[in-house]
Amino acid sequence: MSSKSIHPHDPDTGQARLFQIGYILNRRGDWIWFLALPLVALAAALGSQRWLPYVALASVNLWITIPHHFSTWFRTYGIHEDWQRFKQRLIIGPLVIFAVVFAGLQVAPITLLLVIILWDSQHSIMQQHGFGRIYDFKAGSGSPRTPRFDLALHWILFGNMFLNAPLFVTMWLRELYRLNLLIPVSAVRFIQLASWTVTVAYLAVYLVHVLVSMRRGYPLNPIKYLFIAASYFLWYTAAWHTASIMVFGIAHRLMHGLQYNVMVLHYVKRKSRGTANSSRFWLLRQLRAGNLLLFAVVGLLYALCFQLITLAPLDEFGFGLVHLTDHYQAIPEHGIKAMPGWLGYHMFAEALISTVAVVHYYFDSFIWKVRDRHVQEGL
């Protein structure tokens, strides 16, 4: 969104407005899907950890995540305009990615898992940043420099969680020790203190940016900041209150997946209204007619097909070659015990689910540019 399209002054009074409200969907929809959902998702994840067995946790992740991937295929291949613009990427990209993933599973499966986790984190950051950009786009808020400040805010907050939350600290310490990269306790404490220092300092810098922008006449959309706060409340609380990456994944994917599905439905329905963006598929034509139930049913059927393909126990699915717990012994000086079997099960299940998501990450890296005029038409 360029600064030329932002109108920070009230046309009735001619004075600068400090606050300007804008919603992605509408007031009711945003409060349900973008502000309250993170709190509900966090409660559901912590409840799942307490009352559900391990295999049920994998199932929850599956039934949340896979329909969310279906939304990407639906969004990417279904709109004629996007098919014409990105045809080569949509054909060649998935073939290259599947080839690389297959090779990675044969040569270095654990490294592949780490790469996917990092890409998933980048993808999550960019989705929340993208929603923040839409909030500013809808409200006509923020200065021309706000997108950069927002993106840096996301990277610093998420990076601070990765370096400090017990869930992630245990993971990267295990991997470093497995590679014989021994880090003393004092070094870890220094890294974490530096991370908190950078985070607090940047929050102060960001606050100054907001105040300076408002003083220069650029309004603030408070809904965007409530959305950002809700997102990081979920991530920080889950990362500090669970020892399982899968439980963290349930909270994250409930928020991430449902918000993405809602955004896709909103976007495709608006894009399908005009004859220039006619629907390529029968399902899109049904969506245009308002048949949202059919969309949900097809998404669940897609997840069911994925589940049928992977019905075998996880050990059999890995051909008995993947034993994550054998690689991660105790690290007494950091108070970390040897990886238990249930955690290895969680990590392998997470790897299977996340691997399918790689193409989804690839598509989202170029189909949701808020500055793109074609994307703005659907918002």
What would you say this structure looks like, in words?
The N terminus is likely disordered. The longest helix has 31 residues. Helix 2 packs parallel to helix 10, helix 2 runs parallel beside helix 14 and helix 9 runs antiparallel to helix 10. The radius of gyration is 22 Å and the shape is globular. The chain is mainly α and 379 residues long. The two termini are 12 Å apart. It contains 16 helices and no strands. The protein has one domain.
Brief characterization of the structure:
With 379 residues, this protein is mostly helical.
Question: Major sheet: size, sense and barrel closure?
Answer: none
Net shape: globular
Number of strands: 0
Counted up, domains total: 1
Helix content: over 70%
Radius of gyration, whole Å = 22 Å
Could you say which structural class the secondary elements and strand pairing correspond to? mainly alpha
What gap, in angstroms, lies between the N and C termini?
12 Å
Mean pLDDT: 76
Amount of beta strand: under 5%
Low-confidence stretches: 1-15, 310-322
Tally of contiguous helical segments: 16
- SSE succession: HHHHHHHHHHHHHHHH
Secondary structure topology:
Elements: H1 27-51, H2 54-78, H3 80-85, H4 87-107, H5 109-139, H6 146-164, H7 166-178, H8 185-215, H9 222-240, H10 245-271, H11 282-288, H12 292-309, H13 314-317, H14 341-356, H15 358-367, H16 373-377
Helix pairs in contact: 1-9, 1-10, 2-10, 2-12, 2-14, 2-15, 4-5, 4-15, 5-6, 5-9, 5-15, 6-7, 6-8, 9-10
